[in-house]
Structure formats: C-alpha cells, structure tokens
Amino acid sequence: MGRMEHGDGMLRGMERFISRSETHLEMFLECYPAGLEAAGASGELVVDWLRAHHFAVMAINEKARRLVPADSIDLRTPSFGGELVRAFNLYCSRN
Fold first, then answer.
1. Which domain holds residue 9?
2. Is 50 left (phi over 0), alpha (psi -120 to 50) or beta?
3. Per-residue burial over 40-54, b = 16 or more CB atoms within 10 Å of its CB, e = otherwise
4. pLDDT digits over 46-73, tens only?
C-alpha cells in the first residue's frame, strides 16, 4: 500500500474490526494530518483504504454542520470555509 508501511498498524486494527462487523457499518474517524504523516500515512491513504473496503467517505464540516465529499478538501492541510483546521473528522458508511 505504498507509504503506509509504518502507519498500517492502525489500519490493520481497523481491518480486524470491520471484518467482524455486519455488512452495514458506520464510523466516525478523527484524522490528524501531522500525526498521520509522522506514522508514515496520510489522509489520502486512509480515505483510499476506506474506499477500497467499500466505504462511502465524507468529511464533516463542523462549522457549517454538514457533510462534504472527502475529496473536496485538501486532506494534508484541511480547511473549511477558509479556516485552517489541525484535525478533521470523517463519516464513513458501508451498506
């Protein structure tokens, strides 16, 4: 999975969790870009991994109180309404 070699421990744990779950699953994930990068991962890799596991992934714009497509924001330096945020939340669902 590319650069995920050092950061894939978190995804292995998530994979064990989702493999034991029912078909329908909803998750909220907090993403901290600097922490992901330090672990050898990125927001893009996490979103790609989730999509590969059949999840629809939306970013939560908390200021506007709405969901936006995860690929509509820069996952390395996320901002909503022009306001830079240090972390962002994702809503992920699989049917």
1. 2-94
2. alpha
3. ebbbbbbbbbbeeee
4. 899 999 999 999 999 988 999 999 988 8
Q: Are 11 and 49 in contact (CB under 8 A)?
A: yes
Q: What dihedral do alpha carbons 43, 47, 52, 53 form, nearest 10°? A: 110
Give pTM, 2 decimals: 0.80
Number of domains in the chain: 1
Residue with tokens 């709405």: 66
| Residue 89: exposure state from Cβ atoms within 10 A (0-12, 13-18, ≥19) | middle
pLDDT in tens, 10-47: 777 788 888 887 778 999 999 888 888 888 888 888 89
The residues that bridge with 61 in the sheet, in sequence order, are 66
Could you give the 3-state DSSP secondary structure of residue 5? helix
Query: Which amino acid appears at position 51 of this protein?
Result: R
Alpha-carbon distance 10 to 90, whole Å? Answer: 16
